[in-house]
Design brief:
The complex is a heterodimer.
Chain A: H1 3-36, H2 41-54, H3 56-81, H4 89-106, H5 112-141, H6 145-165, H7 199-216, H8 218-228, H9 230-235, H10 240-267, H11 278-288, H12 293-308, H13 310-317, H14 323-338
Helix pairs in contact in A: 1-2, 1-14, 2-3, 2-12, 2-13, 3-7, 3-10, 3-11, 3-12, 4-5, 4-6, 4-10, 4-11, 5-6, 5-10, 7-8, 7-10, 7-12, 8-10, 11-12, 11-14
Chain B: H1 2-7, E1 18-27, E2 30-40, E3 45-50, H2 56-63, E4 71-76, E5 79-81, H3 86-92, E6 94-97, H4 109-115, H5 126-137, H6 155-168, E7 173-177, H7 185-200, E8 205-210, H8 213-219, E9 222-227, E10 230-236, H9 242-250, E11 274-282, E12 288-297, E13 301-306, H10 313-321, E14 328-333, E15 336-337, H11 342-348, E16 350-353, H12 357-360, H13 368-372, E17 383-384, E18 387-388, H14 390-403, H15 420-432, E19 438-442, H16 450-465, E20 469-473, H17 477-483, E21 486-491, E22 494-500, H18 506-513, H19 517-520
Parallel strand pairs in B: 3-8, 3-9, 6-7, 7-8, 13-20, 13-21, 16-19, 19-20
Antiparallel strand pairs in B: 1-2, 1-4, 4-5, 9-10, 11-12, 11-14, 14-15, 17-18, 21-22
Chain lengths: 353, 523
């Protein structure tokens, strides 16, 4: 009846206003921290803006960082549709990158397009298997997937370090243990007209596909039934286990692809630079975006921008490189805290109708 | 700390007088309560009667401080009070017994009582508390074993503990939300009789939400009837008849026709459609709740399963509808093994009305339209290939909302915003809109008002008359006797007695339900 469309509008307004409000509050708190360190908060924010969005160069830096964030955020948002809270994207990214580097090296002489495709598939497969492990532990053994995915992430990093520093190490990499470079021919280039690598394109396409999948396909609908109430899903005869695993596989594939992009577009081989915290920052992105695949894109650009500005703060204000991580951490805490505000703010309540 | 302890349950203060004036509450465009006033005199037993969605729950939730009303005052002991939270209500001596139990299962009755206090000391001196509790128990008409863990109590005993808890917390105005819905008639009479004795002793005032006319007329002093959010009538029960109550409750609206005579029963030669053999199903703790159960339902008959709650009914239903995997044994439909996969459900048209529909049959966060599509979202016309067709989904929902008279703000409203009866109607609309071959119904009218009950019963019977094999599991023996063609009694996870409903003998069924089947069992 009457309140249908306006009710939805109010809900959307709430879903937008609360994260934005939490981000604003995080900026105030971070500003206070900066003031306590004797820096002007306004100057800090101006520099963050400059470092993130003021020039073509800073945009390039921002988007380059946003690309893996989009993909690792999907690694949270996709299982979340099925009711799982997976936070192990870092592990999937790292293993995806390693798998891509190995495949890229082994197929060295093959036609470049084929190599790139094979690397992407290998990366996605590795990530998918890793997150599916967490999903299977939850589905068939009742292990909490948040904890298991986090711990699997540490295992993945340990395995990665062991292989990169041991059996898979390129003897030529002296200071920084790395796998054998995949070679320039196999590197993924930049998007036409932009100085940003193809990872951004992959991320955008992955987000769009995920959105269409969740909102407009029968699989996505089944996913939301499972996520909303597994008992009702069983009543409807849905294969709950397969659907949950499917969401984990897709999410893990996204994070694994992020690892492949980092190797094939940025580093050229798998090394410790892959362990840059993109997996964890992706959790922040997914939460600010409220697990909405389309909202992930702008949020990832914002978070990517903040981390891109770290160098600027270091150079100009003599602040440590990790300063932006403090801002991210504060933002994450406040975003999580703001979850409790939903449905409690008067202006978003339906009484006014 | 010692002083605090003494306050609890030593001397009962006199009952409270509570009045509600011009209470109004809106949810969006829906007016749940429209200028409702009622007065409950100190020491009276007042019943609040109404259909589902009439506003009974909303009224008491405003009174207990759970919702802020949009307009209206609350007068407690002749002073206007503002109640902003249940905490405020408790401070005034107003308490509520909810429809579902709030006891901690692993704690004893004594522990549950002491822990319910707002002022539990950091270190509880149990010996002292037990002595006080024993002294307190001497002042109430209920007999309870304080040392039993709550999970070992029967439903009636749990309800008594909930009521005693209110007295112990010195609540002098007690709201009860359908307190007898999970009790046997004998338990209900006992609990209500004691409540009435306490009100007449001026120990407490009672406001009871109910659907049951019998309870209103037998136990309450006064009654208020709500209909669609307005006060439709009130009076002293001594002056009222069931017919008058019914008219107040439903107005002049046509009540759905009672079911027309029984369908021609299929002969015994017909192959049963649903067969369960040697079924073992474990409960959450891994104990066999269903233990070697066998049953068969033929097309065109209703097999009623009677039994006291907790004898494996829930696990049996969950196993058949696919929510719980059996440990062993088999379930067959039309002679084929049945595991409740989506294809099997669709092929054999096995549908179900489980108990607690919001928990078992709906996705609370999804809309009414989406919930109505749970069975059919993946096939035409709601889908073409892998694509959902939102328009068709909405059209289907609008048709079903109209046909089953689901009261909702619209097909896009989240189903969790609907009242209990309307959630059940929405599920009914989904499960019974298409041809059904096997229907599994578990307490399908639990907590619903009588018009909804009649309508749901009619639909179940209509499905039977159309040739469905119906398995009806219910804790309400009257419902089973009214609807079933055959009646089976479940006890300890097995069927211990089976009889044609026409020749069912309460003198045999009763003892079987209580586990004394060796003497009376025909099977």
């Amino acid at each position: 009846m009457a309140s249908g469309p306006s009710g939805r509008l109010r809900q959307s307004a709430e879903a937008l206003a609360i994260p934005v409000g939490a981000l604003g509050a995080a900026m105030v708190v971070f500003g206070l921290v900066m003031a306590a360190l004797g820096r002007s908060p306004l100057e800090v924010y101006e520099l963050i803006y400059q470092g993130a969005f003021a020039s073509a160069f800073s945009w390039q830096n921002t988007l380059t960082r946003a690309a893996p964030l989009i993909l690792t955020a999907l690694c949270v948002a996709l299982p979340a549709q099925a009711g799982l809270m997976v936070i192990g994207g870092e592990g999937a990214l790292v293993l995806g990158g390693l798998a891509a580097a190995v495949v890229g090296h082994l197929l060295g002489g093959a036609p470049p397009l084929g190599v790139k495709l094979a690397m992407a598939l290998a990366g996605m497969l590795a990530g998918a298997v890793w997150i599916a492990l967490a999903g299977a532990l939850r589905q068939y053994r009742g292990v909490n997937e948040t904890i298991s995915s986090l711990l699997l992430g540490y295992i993945a990093i340990a395995v990665f370090n062991h292989l990169v520093e041991g059996p898979l190490r390129d003897p030529a990499s002296l200071n920084k243990p790395s796998t054998t470079p995949i070679g320039d021919a196999s590197m993924v280039g930049t998007l036409p007209g932009l100085d940003v690598h193809w990872g951004l394109g992959f991320g955008l396409v992955f987000c769009l596909v995920t959105y269409v999948l969740v909102k407009h396909t029968t699989y996505g609908f089944a996913l939301r039934i499972v996520g909303g109430n597994a008992r009702a899903a069983r009543l409807a005869g849905l294969p709950v286990g397969a659907i949950v695993l499917g969401a984990c596989v897709l999410g893990g594939a996204a994070a694994g692809l992020a690892g492949m992009v980092e190797v094939a577009a940025v580093h050229g081989s798998a090394n410790a630079s892959l362990i840059a915290g993109y997996g964890y920052a992706g959790i922040l992105v997914a939460f600010i975006a409220r697990q909405n695949p389309l909202a992930i894109v702008p949020v990832a650009v914002l978070v990517g921008g903040i981390s891109a500005s770290g160098g600027m703060l270091q150079r100009r204000l003599d602040l440590p490189d990790a300063t932006v991580l403090v801002l991210q951490g504060i933002a994450f805490m406040l975003i999580l805290a703001s979850e409790t505000v939903y449905g409690r703010l008067k202006i978003f309540r339906p009484e006014r109708a | 700390m010692t002083g605090d302890g003494r306050e609890h349950g030593s001397v009962l203060a006199p009952a409270l007088d509570v009045e509600v004036v011009g209470m109004t509450k809106r949810f969006g465009a829906l007016i749940a309560l429209d200028d409702v006033s009622l007065r409950v005199a100190a020491g009276s037993f007042h019943a609040l009667l109404g259909e589902n969605g009439a506003g009974k729950s909303t009224l008491v939730k405003c009174l207990i401080g759970y919702y802020p009303p949009d307009a209206g005052q609350i007068v407690v002991a002749r002073r206007e009070r503002e109640i902003r939270s249940p905490h405020d209500a408790h401070a005034l001596g107003i308490g509520m017994v909810y429809q579902h139990f709030t006891l901690v299962p692993s704690m004893t009755v004594a522990e549950n009582l002491v822990m319910a206090r707002d002022d539990v000391p950091a270190v509880v001196r149990w010996r002292q508390e037990r002595e006080r509790l024993a002294a307190f128990m001497a002042t109430v008409p209920f007999k309870l074993d304080l040392e039993r863990p709550a999970w070992r109590l029967a439903a009636g005993e749990k309800q008594k503990v909930e009521i005693v808890k209110q007295l112990y917390l010195r609540r002098r105005f007690m709201i009860l939300d359908e307190p007898t819905s999970v009790l046997t008639p004998a338990e209900a009479d006992e609990v209500l009789g004691m409540l009435r004795a306490m009100t007449h002793g001026h120990q407490v005032t009672v406001l009871m939400i109910t659907h049951k006319f019998r309870e209103v007329l037998a136990f309450a002093d006064t009654v208020s009837v709500l209909r669609r959010g307005t006060l439709a009538g009130e009076g002293r029960t001594a002056d009222l008849t069931p017919a008058m109550l019914a008219e107040m409750m439903v107005g002049t609206r046509q009540i759905p026709q009672a079911r027309t005579g029984r369908a021609i029963r299929a002969g015994a030669a017909v192959e049963p459609r649903l067969v369960v053999r040697d079924l073992v199903v474990e409960d959450d703790a891994g104990r066999p709740a269903v233990n070697g159960l066998a049953l068969a339902v033929r097309p065109g008959e209703i097999l009623g399963i009677a039994g006291v709650s907790g004898n494996g009914q829930r696990e049996l239903v969950e196993a058949i509808i696919g929510q719980r995997r059996p440990a062993s044994g088999e379930i067959r439909v039309d002679g084929k093994p049945y595991r409740a996969t989506r294809n099997e459900i669709r092929y054999h048209r096995v549908l179900s009305l489980p108990e607690e529909p919001l928990r078992n049959a709906c996705v609370p966060g999804l809309s009414v339209a989406e919930n109505m599509a749970l069975r059919s979202f993946d096939r035409a016309p709601l889908a073409s290939g892998p694509w959902l067709r939102r328009g068709s989904m909405r059209d289907q929902a609008e048709r079903r909302i109209a046909e089953f008279k689901v009261q909702t703000q619209g097909p896009d409203a989240p189903i969790s915003t609907l009242s209990g009866g309307n959630v059940q109607r929405a599920v009914l609309a989904r499960e019974l809109s298409e041809a059904v071959s096997v229907l599994i119904a578990a307490n399908p009218v639990f907590g619903l008002d009588f018009a909804a009950v009649a309508e749901i019963h009619d639909r179940v019977v209509a499905a039977r008359n159309a040739g469905a094999a119906v398995l009806l599991v219910s804790e309400d023996l009257d419902e089973l006797l009214e609807l079933s063609d055959r009646l089976a009694v479940i006890f300890g996870g097995r069927i211990v007695h089976e009889t044609p409903a026409a020749s069912a003998d309460i003198a045999v069924i009763g003892p079987c339900m209580a586990g004394h089947h060796a003497a009376g069992a025909a099977a």
